[in-house]
Automatic annotation (TrEMBL):
<feature type="region of interest" description="Disordered">
    <location>
        <begin position="477"/>
        <end position="496"/>
    </location>
</feature>
<dbReference type="Pfam" id="PF00171">
    <property type="entry name" value="Aldedh"/>
</dbReference>
<dbReference type="InterPro" id="IPR044151">
    <property type="entry name" value="ALDH_KGSADH"/>
</dbReference>
<dbReference type="InterPro" id="IPR016161">
    <property type="entry name" value="Ald_DH/histidinol_DH"/>
</dbReference>
<feature type="compositionally biased region" description="Basic and acidic residues">
    <location>
        <begin position="481"/>
        <end position="496"/>
    </location>
</feature>
<keyword id="KW-0560">Oxidoreductase</keyword>
<dbReference type="GO" id="GO:0033721">
    <property type="term" value="F:aldehyde dehydrogenase (NADP+) activity"/>
</dbReference>
<protein>
    <submittedName>
        <fullName>NADP-dependent aldehyde dehydrogenase</fullName>
        <ecNumber>1.2.1.4</ecNumber>
    </submittedName>
</protein>
<dbReference type="InterPro" id="IPR016162">
    <property type="entry name" value="Ald_DH_N"/>
</dbReference>
<dbReference type="InterPro" id="IPR016163">
    <property type="entry name" value="Ald_DH_C"/>
</dbReference>
<feature type="domain" description="Aldehyde dehydrogenase">
    <location>
        <begin position="5"/>
        <end position="407"/>
    </location>
</feature>
<dbReference type="InterPro" id="IPR050740">
    <property type="entry name" value="Aldehyde_DH_Superfamily"/>
</dbReference>
<dbReference type="InterPro" id="IPR015590">
    <property type="entry name" value="Aldehyde_DH_dom"/>
</dbReference>
Length: 496
């Protein structure tokens, strides 16, 4: 039987065998346990669920000395970065706990009997209920914030749904340790058996999406892998929602005025952003659009000078390294503008690369995301060509605009184009930081995601794992507490 092995990206050597790939029979057992836990978990009151989320956050933080070094050994992302990632993850669980306590996410509504122009209206009450067991696919680039622990797991548990996680093969040992922590914390808080499950292996992931007990799936990864699972979810006898975060090039547009006024500042910030985390952020600004005038060329040269001094960076996996080699090469219409210090050949290390192209020789429809420390500078000739580029590029998770106060007309025109092409517009800043807030939207039109209506970051992410239910002329004793005339734990609700 195939096995999940833990590899050190810095050396490329296998450190340990973590677990066998999960057999179909075991996937079936785990999914059935999740289905059995679902009604009991959904019936628990919100305050208990909030306490469980807080217990998970505490368990993760208490194991910081063990979890962070292990995640670093499997990802080479650095302990400082991973320490912050663990803090973010604990914050997410606590943020969802507070969100659940307030109860506004339930969208509770009560329409009492009344005479209307359409005739007598019955008593109708509505709120959102847990969808059922959720499959979560761990991401390679966030072993602590988008994998076994993280936003998808936190939001599904907050909604009242059991979670079965498919561990990412890049960090199976971290996945096992994190799973043990959060499963024990949930169980100690009183969660029913089957609330959390973990599987390993590609075939197990396929079986997970196909299993009749799974009611939704959340995925962060490649367009190819996500599309295959999305099609599988849609082709089931009972199709389920599939929330996939896929590829995104995230354009960063610099206006002529900004290029002149902030040459060095933008050069420094852009290089720092596209190389952060070895360029393995889904929000990396992979396409930097500069004016084809003297100021734009000077800005590109300032970026190239910074890139030339950067050391090689270690990627998460051999497959990402190989894809980087292909995606960061010179090609039709593109040229190498600068390259950092060479890799020493150990592990999955690669040099930083900055490519360049003229907009007139670039086919925007062919621009694809390249995971790793690389970006493509594109020189545009005037506002019309910039508008055409942004209109024709693949949709993205985020887009950035750098402009000056006297360029309001151009800025407004860019926004008119971008709001149909992206999920977040960042002004005079970089998209690689994604705040965990109620107002954050981390999503976008295909191929950025499979569902542009929802976010995978922030408290609104809970909405993916809830469904509406209405009660008509229902006796008080069968209504959820939140919809009764005198609830024990009141929530904001619309009264009509």
């Amino acid at each position: 039987m195939a096995e999940a092995t833990s590899t050190d990206p810095r050396t490329g050597e296998v450190v340990e065998t973590v677990a066998p790939h999960t057999a179909d029979s075991e996937v079936d057992r785990i999914c059935r346990a999740a289905a059995q836990a679902a009604p009991e978990l959904a019936a628990r009151d919100r305050l208990w669920r909030a306490g469980m989320l807080e217990a998970v956050a505490q368990a993760l933080e208490e194991d910081r000395p063990g979890l962070v070094p292990l995640a670093d050994r499997e990802s080479a992302l650095g302990r400082t970065r991973l320490d912050g990632e663990l803090t973010r993850t604990a914050h997410q669980f606590r943020a969802f706990a507070a969100h659940v306590r307030k109860g506004a996410y339930l969208e509770a509504a009560v329409d009492r009997p009344a005479d209307t122009p359409m005739g007598p209206r019955p008593d109708v009450r509505r709120m959102l209920l847990p969808l059922g067991p959720v499959a979560v696919f761990g991401a390679s680039n966030f072993p602590l914030a988008f994998s076994v622990p993280g936003g998808d797991t936190a939001s599904a548990l907050a909604a009242g749904c059991p979670v079965v996680v498919k561990a990412h093969p890049a960090h199976p040992a971290t996945s096992e340790r994190a799973f043990t922590l959060i499963e024990r914390a949930a169980r100690d808080a009183g969660a029913p058996e089957g609330t959390l499950g973990l599987v390993h292996g590609m075939e197990a992931g396929t079986a997970l999406v196909r299993h009749h007990s799974i009611r939704a799936a959340a995925f962060t990864g490649s367009t190819r892998g996500g599309r295959a699972l999305f099609d599988l979810a849609c082709s089931r006898p009972d199709p389920i929602p599939f929330y996939g975060e896929l590829g995104s090039v995230n354009p960063l547009a610099v206006t002529p005025g900004a290029a002149r006024a902030r040459t060095e500042q933008i050069a420094e910030g852009a290089v720092a952003s596209f190389t952060q985390g070895a360029g393995q952020f889904c929000t990396k600004p992979g396409l930097i659009l500069l004016p084809a005038d003297r100021a734009g060329r000077d800005l590109a040269q300032a970026m190239a000078e910074r890139v030339a001094d950067l050391p090689a960076q270690t990627l998460l996996a051999a497959s990402i390294r190989d894809a980087y080699g292909e995606g960061s090469r010179e090609g039709s219409g593109t040229r190498l503008l600068a390259q950092g210090l060479p890799a020493d050949g150990s592990g999955w290390s690669v040099p930083v690369r900055l490519l360049a192209a003229e907009a007139s020789s670039l086919d925007p429809h062919q621009v694809q995301e390249c995971f790793g420390p690389t970006a493509l500078v594109v020189f545009y000739d005037g506002p019309d060509e910039l508008h055409r580029l942004l209109r024709d590029l693949p949709p993205s998770l985020a887009a950035s605009v750098f402009s000056e106060p006297d360029e309001g007309e151009l800025r407004a025109r860019l926004q008119d184009t971008l709001w149909t092409r992206t999920g977040r517009i960042v002004y005079d800043g970089y998209p690689t930081g994604v705040a965990v807030t109620g107002a954050m939207h981390h999503g976008g039109p295909w191929p950025a995601t499979t569902n542009a209506l929802h976010t995978s970051v922030g408290t609104t992410a809970i909405r993916r794992f809830l469904r509406p239910m209405a009660w008509q002329n229902a006796p008080q004793d069968v209504l959820p507490d939140e919809l009764r005339d005198h609830p024990v734990h009141p929530v904001p609700r619309r009264e009509g």
